[in-house]
Structure formats: C-alpha cells, structure tokens
Design goal:
The complex is a heterodimer of chains A (about 280) and B (about 290).
Chain A: H1 4-27, H2 36-52, H3 58-80, H4 85-105, E1 115-116, H5 123-141, H6 144-154, H7 156-161, H8 166-192, E2 194-195, H9 202-215, H10 221-236, H11 244-258, H12 266-272
Helix pairs in contact in A: 1-5, 1-8, 1-9, 1-10, 2-3, 2-4, 2-8, 3-8, 5-8, 9-10
Chain B: H1 2-30, H2 37-53, H3 58-81, H4 90-111, E1 116-117, E2 126-129, E3 132-135, H5 136-158, H6 160-170, H7 172-177, H8 182-208, E4 210-211, H9 215-230, H10 235-256, H11 261-275
Antiparallel strand pairs in B: 1-4, 2-3
The chains are: A mainly alpha (about 280), B mainly alpha (about 290).
C-alpha cells in the first residue's frame, strides 16, 4: 500500500503533467501561453458544476468541460493571431487573470469563498487520463500534422508560402491546448474536492511553462520529466527547511544555464531509448 | 469624495508608472519580460523600511532602496539574462523567475512573512486642500514619480546613452555594426530598470506604512498591463497609463466593488493589445515581437 504522502505527490505530478502538455502543444507552434491556468479554471468549474449540481458522471463532465474550454480557446486564438512573441504571451497572461477575476465574482459558484461538494477520485483515474493524453500527444508527434505545427514554429511565413493553413494550425493548437488544460482542471477539482479562483492564477500558468522548458520543449516526454521535477524537487529540498525555495530558484537558474534546451532533448531521448538515427 | 478618490488613484498610478517603466526599459529594448522586477520593487521597499527604522531621513531611504534594487538588477542581467541572450525569449524570462523565487524566499527569511509596519504617525502629516485631504507622503510619491520619469525621458531622448538604447531597441545587429556596445547598453537598461523599481518600492511602502514579501506579485503583474497600455516604445506612455489605471482601479473599487477591478484592468490591456498594439502613445510602428 502506497503512503498517502506519495499518492498525493503522484496525483500532483499527473495533474501537472496534463497542464504541461497543454502548454507544450501550443508552444509547438511557436506561441507562448502564460494563461493556461485560465483554461484549467474554466474546465475545473464546468466539470465541478456538472458533477455536483447535475450529478453527471465525471468522465462525461470532463469531456464536456474540455469541449467548452476548447471553444473558448479557439475564440481566444483568433484575436491572438494578431499578436506575436512576448506580446502574445502578455495577452494570454491578461486572459488568465481575467478568468481568475471572473470566478472571483461568480457568486453562483462560491465566488472568493470557493466551491466544494465534488467526489474524491482515485490516483489511478488521474493517471489514466494523464497517460491517455500523453499517448495522444505522442501519436500526434509522429504525424504529419506535427511537422506542420513545427513548420509554423520555425518560420510562419515560409510555412504559409508552401501552402500550410497557418491560421488553422495556430488556432487549432490553442483549442487543443485549452481542452487539455480543462481536463487538468477537472481532475484537480475532483482530487482536492475544493476549488477557489486563486488556484488558477498566474503562478499556475507559469508552472506549466516552467515544466515544459525544464523538461525539454522539443519532445513530449520532456513534459513528464519537467512535471516530475517541479513537484519532487521542492520535496527533496525539504532538509533545507526555510531555504528550500531559494535553493529551488538557484537550481532552476542552473538548469537553464547548463541545458537551455531542457533536460530532455532528441539526442538524449534517442540515447535513452537505444534508437539510432533521426526520427 | 470624488476628488479624494482621484488623488488616491493618482498616488497608486504613480507607482504603477515607475514599475511599468522598469518593465518597459528591459522589454522595449531586449524584448524580455523580467519577472524579477516585482521582487526588486519589494526589496526596494524593505531596504527603505530598514533605513527609515534606523532614523535616517526619507531621501537616504529612497537612495538606499534604489541602489539596492539596481545592484540586484545588474546581477540578474549578468547571471540570468546575458548567458541566455540568444536563447528563445521564454528561457531568460524563466531564469528571471528563478531570481524572483530566490528574492521572495530570502526576504521572507530575513524579515518574516508577516507585514512590517511603521508607526503610523511617522509619515502621517496631511494637508487639507479645500474638501480634499492629501497626505504629505502622497505628494512625495507623485512628485518623485514625475521627477524620475522626467530624468529617464531626458536620458533616453537627449543623451548619447539614450540614443544607443533606442538604436539597440530598433535593431540589435545594426546597432552593433554601428559601433554601439550592446553589452553596455543592456547593462544600463537593467540598471535604470532596477533604480526605478527600487524607488517605487520605497515610495509605496512608506505611503502605506506597511510591506509584505508578496507585495511585488500583484502590483508587478498589474504594472505589465500598464506598460502595454502606455506602449513599450515611449517613455511618457507609462506616465499617462499609470495614473489612468490607478484612477480606473480606485473608481471601480469605490463604485463597482473591489472584485471587478482586475477584470477591468486586464480587459483594457487586451483591448489595447488588439486595437493599438503599440500602446496609447506608441508611434506608428507595429510591434512585431521576435519569436518565443
């Protein structure tokens, strides 16, 4: 029997992994989202509403919340086409803060005092979703669509010139990322059985980005490494007591300085999986 | 009542202006979002507090807070920005986040996580101006802000250092070919940025007579919105946008409830990004940021 301590950490890793993948697919098109916690919040509130008020089964509620969030992702994605680089990132940051602020005012579901009544879910259920989404992203990574995504990332103008529909690709990535983030939110709500708007602020969004970059933003498996590290590192540093966050900051900077492409990249992954040649 | 709110909004806006300028100096020139600026601001406030507690006068506290934040800003430039300058923009942004985590932790350990407070009578002199009751400290905040913005505007627009700054903002490569020392310019941008953030910290913490290690998080994010609304390419943009947001915020709190102010501020920011990406006072140039 696993201790509740490790079970809790594993649940956190699973949820963070899903959130990390949501940023990963958007970043694959060269768009940095600093607002995915907003999509997570939307998914979290919709799924909780459906299970608590309407007694829907959680799996159905998660799918519905993912669809709703992806609609919003697409709606957000279209105006985002006008913006590039850091300005797009700032706009998504603003979107995330607006969503948080909206739920703060949404008294129907508790407003600032939060919302509860959800049924607790098992660790296995969280990881079923995490593994499923990871599998989908891995399959996507081996498809032609992914090559198109990377083409938009590397040179949008050139990608457009060879006939790729860059609008569809960029907006689609936002919609897909939003759906994934929403599922992370629904699982979060039913793991902690209590949510409040503060759960879905800027710090959560930046955690996703941090996990992507630390783990390695060029391979999906990097998200697993990043999510694992981000949860476990502060735990391993507990012996430093009050100074563990400072140590975490130092380690973060060191990793970025020593491995700016992230811990996992294609050459390392190929070595680890005994694969040779390019793929 | 209305005028009183206006004055309070102006004071808050003045602080936003300073931090927004701190952001935009680094962002406008290097396209990097320095996420440690909120914590430089917080650190400046603590240093100011410590100096006041040792019974030094306010100008000394201001200078000490500014110097402390500026030194750290230069350290951040050397450690977190310079080695990663060729990496995608998200990487130096996250290394500055590392500094923000460290600073918050260190300050919490040194001064504690509870709010520090000054004896309230210390900066509590007030002047009545008709029906409006203005704290002397409010006047100091607004006055110091206007003076600092004027100095920065003078440096950016009239001096050779400023010309170099603007040249690098336009094109790093071309500036380098023309003989501008990009490294030195980057250092100056971070230095001035730190000075401004530190000044803002001292001013706001003495105005409220209280400070916590988390003060930088919320105000820092809000200052990013102010920077965008004012435009990253014009120094005076922040001087307009800061008070605008400060006043909007104070009025939404007074008449719409404190909860909706973030909705209004960030909504305004997104509107500006979509309709006028160069900001209220920005030039005609459409800002096309480099790839992330």
């Amino acid at each position: 029997m696993m201790s509740t301590y490790y079970a809790g950490l594993l649940a956190d890793i699973g949820i963070l992994l899903i959130g990390t993948l949501s940023v990963y697919v958007i970043l694959a098109t060269g768009q940095l989202s600093l607002g995915n916690a907003g999509f997570m919040g939307i998914g979290s509130y919709i799924a909780s509403f459906l299970t608590v008020e309407w007694h829907w089964p959680l799996t159905v509620a998660l799918v519905i919340s993912a669809l709703a969030a992806s609609m919003i992702g697409i709606i957000v994605g279209f105006p985002a086409l006008r913006l590039k680089g850091i300005y797009l990132a700032i706009a998504t940051l603003g979107f995330g803060e607006m969503v948080r602020s909206f739920f703060l005012n949404f008294d129907r579901m508790g407003g600032s005092s939060g919302y509860h009544g959800m049924q607790h879910i098992s660790l296995a259920y969280i990881w079923l979703w995490a593994a499923g989404i990871f599998l989908i992203v891995t399959i996507l990574e081996r498809s032609q669509l992914w090559l198109e995504l990377r083409a938009v990332h590397d040179d949008e103008t050139a990608a457009g010139l060879v006939g790729l529909n860059t609008t569809h690709i960029k907006v689609g990535a936002f919609g897909f990322g939003a759906a994934i983030a929403a599922i992370a939110g629904g699982l979060f709500a039913h793991h902690y059985v209590y949510i409040e708007p503060g759960n879905f602020g800027f710090e959560r969004s930046i955690d996703f980005v941090l996990a992507v970059i630390l783990g390695g933003s060029t391979v999906g498996a990097g998200a697993v490494v990043g999510a694992g590290l981000l949860i476990l590192l502060p735990e391993w540093l507990r012996f430093l007591a009050d100074w563990r966050l400072a140590a975490f900051g130092v380690l973060l900077i060191l990793v970025l300085l020593l491995r700016r492409q992230g811990i996992l990249d294609r050459p390392l992954l190929a070595k680890l999986t005994f694969r040779s040649g390019a793929w | 009542m209305l005028l009183q709110q206006l004055v309070n909004g102006l004071t808050l806006g003045a602080v936003y202006t300073l931090i927004a300028l701190a952001f935009s100096l680094v962002m406008g020139i290097l396209s990097v979002l320095n996420l440690a600026i909120g914590e430089l601001f917080m650190l400046g406030g603590y240093i100011g507090f410590a100096v006041i507690a040792m019974h030094f006068p306010l100008p000394v506290a201001l200078a000490a807070g500014m110097a402390g934040a500026a030194i750290l800003s230069v350290v951040i430039q050397k450690v977190a920005y310079e080695p990663l300058r060729d990496a995608p923009l998200v990487t130096p942004m996250l290394s500055t986040l590392g500094f923000s985590i460290i600073l918050q932790n260190v300050v919490t350990n040194v001064w504690g996580s509870d709010p520090l407070q000054l004896p309230s009578e210390m900066f509590d002199n007030r002047v009545a101006l008709g029906s409006v009751d203005i704290g002397v400290m409010q006047l100091v905040v607004v006055g110091a802000t206007v003076a600092l913005v004027a100095i920065v505007a003078y440096i950016v627009q009239q001096t050779s250092v400023g010309r170099a700054l603007r040249a690098v903002a336009e094109s790093r490569e071309v500036a380098r070919l023309l003989g501008v020392s990009v490294n030195r310019v980057t250092l100056v941008a971070f230095l001035i940025s730190g000075l401004l953030a530190g000044a803002a910290g001292v001013l706001i913490s003495l105005h409220y007579a209280a400070i916590t290690p988390y003060i930088g998080v919320d105000i820092g994010l809000k200052a990013i919105a102010v920077m965008v609304i004012g435009g990253t390419t014009r120094v005076f943009g922040a001087l307009i946008a800061g008070p605008l947001i400060g006043i909007v915020e104070v009025f939404t709190i007074a008449y719409g409830g404190s909860q909706i102010r973030d909705l209004v501020v960030y909504g305004l920011m997104i509107l500006i990004l979509l309709l006028r990406p160069q900001g209220l006072l920005g030039g005609s140039r459409q800002d096309v940021g480099p790839r992330v």
